[in-house]
Task: inverse folding
């Protein structure tokens, strides 16, 4: 049934006369009368009866009126949903993240973004491997990833979001923990290291090894852990020190002392499919950029990552 005709019927019922309904609808009275007659003829029933109070719905008219109001409300709600979706204000968004994100910049701004986009269903998926996060974006499991070391692929677009120092997390009893002054990277040769296993987090593992090589030291592996909590527990137990993003200080592990590594930094990237034109993805990326103030490291223009 034509929604327009249902709207005409509701207007007549609410106004109590065809002339008043016609003025409200900006139609001529003959046009509206003809539309009502056509609707009644199509349904085979009389929808209104004339009384001293004007036009009043018949039993059949009342039944249709009840349904018409519901249908029109649903149709308007559907149009609202369509408009919101076109503006990137509604829908479902799946974001992949690692601990260095959720414990740092991402965790700081998510609450604000949820308030800005209250009708968006934000799904958060924690992953420990940078390569897996990038692959999740490529195969559609993730819409956006917030990660430190994205893979290089033509179909991936990346934007530098924020940077933070790398920090050496030391056992509290170790002499190197007696000062909180930033340490040179060469200090990594003075203590065994607690690392992520390369098979579970190859990019994070290789980042630490490369840092050692640039500092001219040969890393000694004291232990390995598959989560930040496990790594910090091993550090507290004296197995060695761990190099992680500075934001992990928020975990406040007892028996562990953080000491920043001078001249080092790690980068958080926003990663998405270069061909993804969804308005919601664009709005989320803009909201992330706007919500996090990074004056020293403004986001770069979004460009596909080169091969």
Result:
């Amino acid at each position: 049934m034509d929604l327009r005709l249902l709207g005409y019927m509701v207007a007549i019922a609410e106004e109590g006369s065809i002339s008043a309904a016609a003025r409200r609808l900006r139609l001529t009275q003959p046009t509206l009368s003809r539309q009502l007659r056509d609707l009644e003829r199509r349904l085979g029933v009389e929808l209104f009866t004339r009384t001293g109070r004007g036009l009043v719905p018949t039993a059949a008219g009342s039944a249709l009126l009840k349904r018409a109001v519901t249908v029109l409300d649903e149709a308007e709600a559907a149009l609202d949903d369509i408009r919101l979706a076109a503006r990137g204000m509604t829908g479902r968004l799946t974001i992949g993240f690692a601990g260095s994100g959720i414990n740092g910049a991402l965790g700081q701004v998510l609450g604000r973004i949820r308030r800005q986009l209250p009708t968006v269903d934000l799904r958060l998926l924690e992953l420990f491997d940078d390569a897996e996060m990038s692959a999740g974006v490529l195969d559609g499991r993730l819409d956006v990833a917030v990660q430190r070391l994205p893979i290089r692929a033509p179909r991936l677009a990346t934007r530098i979001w924020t940077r933070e120092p790398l920090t050496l997390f030391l056992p509290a009893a170790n002499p190197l923990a007696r000062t909180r002054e930033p340490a040179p990277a060469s200090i990594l040769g003075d203590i065994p290291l607690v690392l992520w296993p390369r098979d579970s987090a190859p990019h994070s593992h290789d980042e630490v090894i490369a840092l050692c090589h640039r500092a001219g030291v040969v890393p000694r592996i004291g232990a390995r852990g598959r989560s930040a909590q496990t790594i910090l527990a091993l550090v507290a137990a004296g197995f060695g020190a761990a190099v992680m993003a500075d934001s992990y200080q928020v975990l406040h592990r007892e028996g562990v002392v953080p000491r920043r590594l001078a001249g080092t930094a790690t980068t958080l990237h926003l990663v998405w499919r270069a061909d993804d034109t969804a308005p919601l993805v664009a709005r989320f990326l803009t909201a992330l950029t706007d919500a996090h103030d990074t004056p020293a490291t403004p986001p770069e223009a979004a460009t596909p990552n080169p091969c």
